[in-house]
Predict the structure.
Amino acid sequence: MTNSNKRPLTLRDVSEASGVSEMTVSRVLRNKGDVSEATRQKVQEAAKKLGYVPNKIAGALASQRVNLVAVIIPSLGNMVFPEVLSGISDVLADTPLQPVVGVTDYLPEREEKVLFEMLSWRPSGVIIAGLEHSEASRAMLARAGIPVVEIMDIDGEPIDSCVGISHRRAGRIMAEEIIAAGYRKIGFMGTKMPLDHRARKRFEGFTQTLAKAGIEIVDQEFYSGGSALAKGREMTEAMLKRSPDLDFLYYSNDMIGAGGLLHLLEKGADIPGEIGLAGFNGVELLDGLPRKLTTMDACRREIGETAARIIAEQNAEGASQKPQRIEISPKLSLGDTLRRP
Amino acid sequence: MTNSNKRPLTLRDVSEASGVSEMTVSRVLRNKGDVSEATRQKVQEAAKKLGYVPNKIAGALASQRVNLVAVIIPSLGNMVFPEVLSGISDVLADTPLQPVVGVTDYLPEREEKVLFEMLSWRPSGVIIAGLEHSEASRAMLARAGIPVVEIMDIDGEPIDSCVGISHRRAGRIMAEEIIAAGYRKIGFMGTKMPLDHRARKRFEGFTQTLAKAGIEIVDQEFYSGGSALAKGREMTEAMLKRSPDLDFLYYSNDMIGAGGLLHLLEKGADIPGEIGLAGFNGVELLDGLPRKLTTMDACRREIGETAARIIAEQNAEGASQKPQRIEISPKLSLGDTLRRP
DNA sequence: TTGAAAGCGCTAACAT
DNA sequence: ATGTTAGCGCTTTCAA
């Protein structure tokens, strides 16, 4: 209707259409500086009529500021990360900042590449999952000169700030609960761990605590890929065939735990009397299962919110820039699959 | 180690460190133009040693090209969209293009805002869910002068290209199956529809087909928010209390269908004899339930891949720019919850 | 194969 | 309250 040719509109077009200088047009469009109501009207009208969309590339280059926050996570298919994201978005919605997501598929080399790409847009901050990164990644982050928040985990050395839970402690707490409930023959199922440091740390905390009580894991199995629910079923069936005397199954995530639960319910197992179960994450998705799985809420939303708040604060006026280290306490959710003392 | 001060490095720094002109440094870093092996070495070494990260803002402004594809979807919590995304990423991985995601929460005004924000970065293309957009959004897309692919749905008038399934047809096909299987007292459960046009179209196709067979929906209920699994349970229980003679339940998505399934199994219902169930989407997530829910695969990955391919092609050399309209056929998955004739 | 000049579209800083 | 000037850090184009 107004602009059918190819060339995108520039400030100059709006300036000419409204008879106001480019500079003043720019001020109106950014609500910056004093502009009389009259010219403001004229400009806004012209911009709308033309369908002008500002060019942030040019704006960013000129102002040396990009209101983007790079958010780097391992996966979107995991339920867990969309929740973190939603916490981040909610907090950033009240600021000029906008999240931009990059996905690494749990691969350090992908992380390195994604990070490089995102940093080359000169974002105002980085939120990145985990504390384990390649040397090159750490160097890039350290040199970027922007706030960096590592999230989800606090067992390690952050580059700048970090917000998360202690997965070691989470594993320990669950182990203590299980021991207190009187279970002794414990099996473990989870993802292949070289990929997933947080799962590994939970496992370590878990086994170490058992060890202190003189208990050793009876059986364990690791998987990768596929539908977690189905995997949970299969692994559980296989493990109980191998080790029929197990009285507790600890799963590294709720989805495989749910699969195990469904399998045992079908078999008519007495849960939590004969055998107990626990997962990890506290995914809301599973509310509505026949039994509520014992699990531990990793407070993903809260982590996202807190991380975003740190970035937002450090981008505000009198930014302190002081690294923060915030430990969130995961919440134990007893559910129905652990014997009550 | 190399750059502890704040100012980010520029091409000039690399130029000085390597004793090569900025222009040639630029050529090396982009693999463009002929550069002697000797200088190439020098430059790459210097860049790596300094930890130089190119400034894409400046590059984009100078070259008038931004290798980003805006992907605009209603939600990340829906399982469905991450799959579309993963199809898009996979295809774009073989090109210079990179997806950037924006989320609308199913709100037209959010969509408008997200779209405006993304267009102001001058992306090389837009992939956007659905065919229903505000006038302003349509105008922006039409004027952007870049390829636009509307995805997931083809029942309507695309702005440029579109890739998706016909949800009306999907509803119709499911209705035909249900009728053929001999069910007659049919209930429907789904999301509140003003938000979700695709669910609405399925519902329309479904009811119209039933109508042709002289069948009218006996009962229906709509929900929003909360855990879909739990909602499916609750709604199913409530509906069967209200309308005990129902012999089929059609759910607008697999998650609530799964909730209904779990509820009915617990009640000891005879499925699919006494009562049948069907959902929509074919989410892999649910593989591992006690019964396989009858559903229809919306081919989300394929849709994402195809859309990305269109954008990539139109950004290639002799770009045709001709709008494409691609209908994908959803795959019926009979499962265990529909009587076999 | 390499370099120099010009400018992408905007905004900071400084007039007026 | 509004306008003018000078870049932001790159790449395009043209010259050597």
About this structure: The first strand of chain A starts at residue 68 and ends at 73. Chain A has a mean pLDDT of 94. Chain A touches chain B through 57 residues (CB under 8 Å).
